[in-house]
Design goal:
Elements: E1 7-10, E2 15-20, E3 23-28, E4 33-34, E5 40-41, H1 42-45, E6 56-59, E7 64-69, E8 72-77, E9 89-90, E10 105-109, E11 112-117, E12 120-123, E13 135-139, H2 140-143, E14 154-157, E15 166-171, E16 174-179, E17 184-185, E18 191-192, H3 201-206, E19 209-212, E20 218-220, E21 225-234, E22 239-247, E23 252-255, E24 261-262, E25 269-271, E26 282-291, E27 295-304, E28 320-324, E29 330-334, E30 343-351, E31 357-366, H4 373-380
Parallel strand pairs: 19-29
Antiparallel strand pairs: 1-2, 2-3, 3-4, 3-5, 6-7, 7-8, 8-9, 10-11, 11-12, 12-13, 14-15, 15-16, 16-17, 16-18, 20-31, 21-26, 21-28, 22-23, 22-27, 24-25, 25-26, 27-30, 28-29, 30-31
Length: 381
């Protein structure tokens, strides 16, 4: 499979984020490998950002970051990972001296931002979109001698492992490392993005990455063992993740905060914790499925415990689950919005005749009256 990074952003917290298609990959500068649990859907981590990866991204020293896509841009912050009210906005009329659309890449070095498009590079201004200090457009190699003449996909700073004065340029499946002190490309570059040069990154980019946003959409699950199911939401409410299962033996059960399950013995499913409240920051609960092949079907459910028996507040909470295996393959499923019920079945995992398993976006709401598995199944089957 081909490798292409849409844009990259250094969070200045030890993590570099690579945006690819509808997914984001966190890369740890200290351990020099992909962070556990990635890739995930962009909107599962960066609330309100473009559904598909931006064309370019950069961060200012104060933590404000900008994402550019087509003819618009979004303002956000690393701390909140939420879009600032009033965005997206048009590039034209808001960024002096900058191209109006289709920016290839950008990076901030100190207080100076560099923007790339085709063969050219522009410094539109310092500190913000209306700052002074315009330069350009000039050939890329005027500012970065030895870098590719055109077609930059992404560029990102590096802050760890003694590489604080280095920046990385990406183009297709290759990359270059540029030394800011020596003002030249390091010897031996360009190099390929492989598991030796960027551990886990190529696999993460090429991983099976499905996003199910509509009811009844399906995708095949890549693995039968050690699956991680992450429920994520943005809202100060007590959502609970549950798994209602039916084994091939006919046995049924419910895994939830009152029965967290077991991994080493039946039912081979376990909930990690009860998240409860926690402000409007992103929250999550995780269910691990050690052995999928003993089940005929599993329903992944979210109920609003804070409004039990009443009307759930699923609207604007961006409720979603991401299922990941040990190889970084993932499937994300989003809950279609509806009101009036206190529980929702987000997805169903079921066995096919060929021994493989499929996940289906259910987006089915119901009134919950207890945790009995047969009672819940009767509402869903």
């Amino acid at each position: 499979m081909s490798i292409k990074i849409n844009c990259a952003l250094n969070a200045n917290d030890g993590k570099v984020y690579f945006f690819v298609g509808e997914k984001v990959i966190s890369y740890d500068e200290k351990t020099n490998k992909v962070s556990p649990g990635y890739p995930i859907a962009i909107d599962a981590e960066w609330k309100g950002l473009y559904d598909k990866a931006a064309d370019a991204a950069c961060q200012l020293p104060n933590g404000v970051c900008y994402f550019f896509k087509d003819d618009s841009f979004i303002r956000s912050t690393i701390k909140t990972k939420k879009v600032t009210a009033g965005y997206p906005k048009s590039i034209k009329g808001n960024w002096k001296n900058l191209w109006d659309n289709k920016i290839d890449a950008c990076i901030t070095i100190g207080e100076t931002a560099y923007f790339f498009k085709g063969k050219e590079c522009i410094i539109p201004g310092k500190k913000n979109e209306n700052g002074a200090g315009f330069e350009g457009p000039k050939p890329i190699q005027h500012y970065f001698p030895g870098i590719w003449e055109d077609g930059i996909d992404a560029v990102v700073n590096w802050h760890g492992n003694g590489l604080e004065n280095k920046i990385y340029f990406f183009k297709g499946d290759s990359y270059m490392r540029f030394d800011l002190i020596k003002n030249k490309v390091d010897s031996g570059y360009p190099m390929k993005i492989t598991d030796n040069t960027w551990p886990g990154l190529a696999d993460a980019i090429n991983a099976t990455s499905n996003v199910l946003k509509k009811k009844d959409e399906t995708a095949n699950l890549p693995s039968l063992f050690n699956l991680s199911v992450k429920l994520r939401w943005f809202k100060d409410v007590d959502f609970d993740l549950a798994a209602v299962y039916k084994m091939k033996t006919g046995e049924t059960g419910t895994i939830y905060f009152g029965n967290k399950g077991e991994l080493s013995k039946s039912p081979f499913i376990k909930l990690d914790r009860d998240q409860m409240y926690g402000g409007n920051a992103q929250k999550e609960e995780i269910i691990t499925i050690a052995k999928l092949d003993v089940f005929s079907e599993i329903y992944l459910i979210c109920w609003d415990y804070s409004n039990e028996g009443g009307t759930g507040v699923f609207d604007d909470a961006d409720v979603n689950i991401t299922i990941l295996d040990n190889n970084g393959n993932s499937v994300s499923t989003y809950l279609e919005k509806e009101t009036g019920k206190d529980a929702a079945c987000i997805a169903k995992i079921y066995s096919n005749n060929d021994g493989k398993y499929t996940i289906k976006n259910m987006s089915t709401y119901f009134k919950r009256d207890g945790s009995d598995s047969k009672n819940i199944l009767s509402k869903l089957v």
